[in-house]
């Protein structure tokens, strides 16, 4: 294809103000062909290679081209191209809303952009400014357009200072319009707004630990399960309201919610409770209980279901398993494990649940379970894979197409004194880590450096393709391919509680601090909802 020959005489492209590169000519030429509907999925031949034109546009997307490519894909309902352009826009919404090509978009296209939940904006004011900028470029239809587009602006998410600025704008530019108000509490604000945008959350590492709430003269007055949050964006530490004391409970997160299942109380009783913490409201609530009490069990999330797997109940080790439907709020039994097991590492990957190592109390050769149990959530079937070594109380972190197993305990030796008598193995902590492929085999191709410090059990999570390990009040992080772990600059602050141990960690989406008072307001207050005629 001779791009310069084909496109240099185009009336719609001023080549004098565009970079004179082959990529520029091809990109704009293909756009013109798409716009005039002269082809839908033509094949471009370049350097002897064949590939669809939409792939070329997707690969060449930039800040200067993404709005035009989005408009093109939106007009032709081209899902592949639309997905690529949408991601670019949601990540760069604020600068793109001020780009010279933004006013050239039609109403439907602009509306589709500003209605997206995925916009990476920390304040709804950024969306309002984008709407205002676009409307001001359409002088003939100011008021009718502002009414339509303001329906996509989530006014209940604006602070009192921000809504005051919006109100002044509306009065100054549209004298015959006003904001419509309603009495709403925090829950009402959230419902009326339609939810937070993606950029309105911060990502936290939340660690579940046992803490002394008050200690005088060496005597513990009160012991509780506390949750300490590390804000990964601001690198600051925050606290979450505590629960009653629970040891060896299950702990996971789904979006902006934490879930804690089972556990053991100070008096030794094992619970079947399920607790939920909503980061939007800042409150805990109790959900329907499991069918049996559990501790040291697997607790995983997959496709809007929570899974409680194996573990212990009093002196008994369990082979039972059950799932909790987050929409229906009910527990249902699933296929039992092949045998009773506890103290294993667990992770969810590609619709499968992995239980790695642990203690199996039904085997003649001792306590060690040298193996991996894999549950297929679609087929309700368990499979087993061998493991060449023992591991207990490790932490498993799923990422890409495999599972990183971090630290824990290992057996150094075991022997028999007489037939039928098993001597307990010498168990010690390990700095070692290993990588498990999705088929359940240990891969030697992925090298993981030893942990810099021994911690039992490891509190490890994955965020932005990095594994973060919380050790006391310090965080170490590592990315695949790096030779060693790196210590975070920030340590946990002094709090009113004393660390005893950190036993688990998850990532949680938490509303930014400016939004929390709005969403957690218990009493109703006047809240702006939309623009109306006077």
TrEMBL record:
Transmembrane segments: none annotated. It holds the Pfam family Kelch_KLHDC2_KLHL20_DRC7. Residues 66-167 form the BACK domain. Keywords: Kelch repeat, Repeat. Gene3D superfamilies: 1.25.40.420, Kelch-type beta propeller, Potassium Channel Kv1.1, Chain A. InterPro entries: BACK, Kelch-typ_b-propeller, Kelch_1, SKP1/BTB/POZ_sf. SMART domains: BACK, Kelch. This is Kelch-like 6. It comes from Crotalus adamanteus. The lineage of its organism: Eukaryota, Metazoa, Chordata, Craniata, Vertebrata.
